Amino acid sequence: MDLRASRILGLPFSTFSLLKRSNNGAIINHKCTSSSGSGKFRLRPRPQEIKLAKNKNCNKNSSKDESCTRKSDDSASALSDNGTVRSDLSNKQQHNLDTEILQIAWPMLLTLVADPVAGMVDTAYIGRLGAAELAGIGAGLSIFNSVTKLFNVPLLSVTTSAVAAVHGASSSAVAAAHGASTLKSVFKVPASPTDTAVHSGVTNPTTNNDSPNYEELDRVQAEARPANNYDGDIMDDAPHILAGLAGSGGSAPVAVNHPNDTSDHTPPTGPTGTPSFFTRLHLDPQVAEAASSAVLIALGIGVLQMLMLFQTHVLLPTWGILPGSDLLRPASDFLTVRCLGAPATVLMLTLQGVFRGLKDTKTTLAVTVISNLFNIALAPLLIFCAGWGVKGAALSTILSQALACVYLMHRLSLGHHLLSPSMGTLSKVLDMFKPTGMLVVRTFFITVVYATATASISHAGAAPAAAHQVAFQIWMACSLLADSLAVASQALLTSSLASDDKLRARMIVHRTLTMSAWLGGALAVGLAMFGNAAATLFTSDQMVLLFIHGIMPLVILSQPINAAAFALDGILFGAGAFQESCKVVAIASAPALICMVLSTAYTEASTRLLVVWIGLLLLMIGRAVTILSDVYTGLGKFSWMRHNLP
C-alpha cells in the first residue's frame, strides 16, 4: 500500500515512509500541489524533511552521496529562508504567470485607450458647433468628472478586489474538495457519511486487483485542476486530506462545495461548443452575491451623484461660469442631460470591476469598444441631424453606457440576486467598501497636486501652459500601459491571497515588478527617440515646442519610476491595503506640493515649468519608494512577504 502511495505522490518510498511515521501517522508541514503538466499530485515537505529523507535513502548507497546531497540542496533551494521569491524559480512557473498577467493586461490596456479615443472624436464633433459650445462642454465635463471620479475610481478598485477575493476563495475550496475525492478513491479509503456529496458521481479508479488505475486518476485530477492552470500550490487543505491516507485508514475531513452551488464552473459555450459572447456565465453563488451587492451599492451612489449634479446653479459659478457668460447656456444644457447618466456611469465601472475580479478583461474590452463605436455613430445623428447640439452629445454617451450595462448585467445573470440580496453578503461587501473613503481622500490628494501644477504654470503664460498640457498628456498616455499591468497584478494577487497561496502571491509581486521595470525602460527609450517628434502632433507653435524640449528629459526620466509606482499601486490594492495607499499618496504629495508652491517664486517661465515637473517626479518617486519599502520589509498587509512558507 505504501509503495503504491509513494508512486502516486511522486516521492521516493523512503521519503514517504519517513513522513508517514512522523506525528503518529500524520503527514505534517507540507503542501500538496498539482502539476499542470502531468495532473499528478506531489507532496512537498519542508526543506529539512527533504534533507532528512534523502540522507536516509542515500546512506544505503554511499556511492550516490554526492548526487543525493546535490538533489537535497536543490529541493531546499526552492524556498528561501526569508520567505522572498528566489531567482531559481522554474522557468515554466514564471512563463505561466507572465502569460496570465499579460492575458489580463493587454485587453485592459486597449480598454483604457478606447475611452480617450472616443472622447477625442466627441470633441471633434462639438468643435464644429462653435468655440462657445466646445468650451461649455469642456466645463461641463470637468464638473461631471470631478464629482464622479472621486467615488467611481475607488469603487472600481474595491469591487475588483472584493470579487477577486471571493472568487479566489471559492476556486480554492472547489480544488480542495475534488482533490480529496480523487485521492480517497485511489487508495480506497473508507468514506465517512459526510463524504457522500464528494464521492457521488466519481468513478473509483481502481481495478479488481486493487491496483490504482493511473489513467483514471490523471483524468479526474485534471478535471479538478483550477482554471488558471497555475503550476504551484493549490490545496491549502492538503495536510488534512493526506493525514487520513498516511494514518490507519480513517477518512479525513473534506471541504465540500456550498450546498446551494449548482454552477458547473465551466466556461459558457455556444451551440458549436465554442465560447459564446451572449451566453450567460454560471457564477458560484457566493461570487454572484458579492457582485450583486456591489452593483446595488453602486446604484445607490450613482443616484446620489445624479442629485448632486442637478445643482447646476451652484456648480457652474464654482467653475467660474457666471450669468451672462457665453458658456453658461451650453454648459448648463450639457450638464443637465449628462447628469441623468451618472447611475449608468458608476454601474458600468462597477460591472467592469466585477469582470476584472474574475480575471476576465476580454469581455470588458469587447463591450467598451462596441459601446464607444455605438456612441461615435449615434452622436452626429443626435447633434446635427436631430439638431439637439450639446444635449445630443450627452444623450449619446448615456445611451452607449446604458447599452454596455444591459449586456454586462445579462452576462452575469444577477437578476435573482438583485431582487433578493443576501443581507449577510451585502454586509460583507459593505465592509469591503469601507476603504472607499480612504481611496476618495487618496484621489483628492492626487487631484490637488495635478490642479496645483496646472494653476502654477497657467500664471506663467500661454506658451508654457500649453507645453505643460502637451507633456502631461504624453506622460499620462504612457501611464496607461503601467496601469493595465496594475489591474492584472491586483486581480491575480487578491485571488492568490484569498486562497492563502503565499508562494504564488510572492511570485506575482516579483514578476509584476520585473515586467514594470522592462516596461519603464522601454518607454524611456521610446520617448528619448520619438518624444520631441510626438510633440509636433499636438502643436506647431515653435515657442511651445521649445518649452516642451526643456522638460522632455524629466518626462523621459520619470517613465521607469511611473511604471513601478503604478504597478505597486496594483500590488497595494491586491493586498487590500487601501488605507495604506492613502497614507502613501499623502506622504508623497507633500514634497510635490512644496515644489509647486516654490515654483511661483520664479518669474522665468522655463524655470517655473522645470520646478513644477520636478514636483511631479517627486510625487512618483515618493509613491514608488514608500510602497516598495513596505512590500519588501513585510510591513502591515505585506507580512506574508517576510514569513517562511508553511
TrEMBL record:
Gene Ontology molecular function: antiporter activity; xenobiotic transmembrane transporter activity
Compartments (UniProt record): Membrane
Pfam family membership, one: MatE
GO cellular component, one term: membrane
Biased composition (Basic and acidic residues): 62-74
Polar residues bias (residue ranges): 75-91, 194-212
Residue stretches spanning the membrane: 290-315, 335-355, 367-389, 439-462, 474-494, 515-538, 544-572, 584-603, 609-632
Predominant subcellular localization, coarse grouping: membrane
Membrane topology: Multi-pass membrane protein
Annotated spans, Disordered: 57-91, 194-214, 252-276
Annotated family: Belongs to the multi antimicrobial extrusion (MATE) (TC 2.A.66.1) family.
Matches recorded under NCBIfam families: matE
Protein name as it appears in the record: Protein DETOXIFICATION
Lineage of origin: Eukaryota, Viridiplantae, Chlorophyta, core chlorophytes, Chlorophyceae
